[in-house]
Amino acid sequence: MDINILHKVSLVLAFVMSLLLSHAHSFVIFDRTASCVRQFGCSADLVGWITEVEDIDTCQKMCDAQESCNYFTWHEGSGTPSRLFRHFCFFFSECGDLDFECTSCYSGPKTSGCPLRRRNL
């Protein structure tokens, strides 16, 4: 095969690869994830609670549905005092007092309070 043809083919391949790579970042989605949920408990301004809530996402959605709820705490149920509150979902208007001793508590804002995160596909 002629060296000139190989050079042209490699240039075309390099051009195609650069096009693909430059457009790879244009496939972006924005979503609200549980990334704004952290391992601590809220302990002020309680406005309600629901028992037998199986997971964090469900607790957050229940907070979304309540006008007075701006923050939630979900108790996983392991350890003390969470064993007493296993799968309880607490709703708060504010979360000013943070309880870092509750190692099986997960708290965060209602979904609209979570920032959108950019993810490249």
TrEMBL record:
Signal sequence coordinates: 1-26
UniProt keyword Signal present: yes
Keywords: Signal
Protein name per Swiss-Prot or TrEMBL: Apple domain-containing protein
Taxonomic source organism: Tigriopus californicus (Marine copepod)
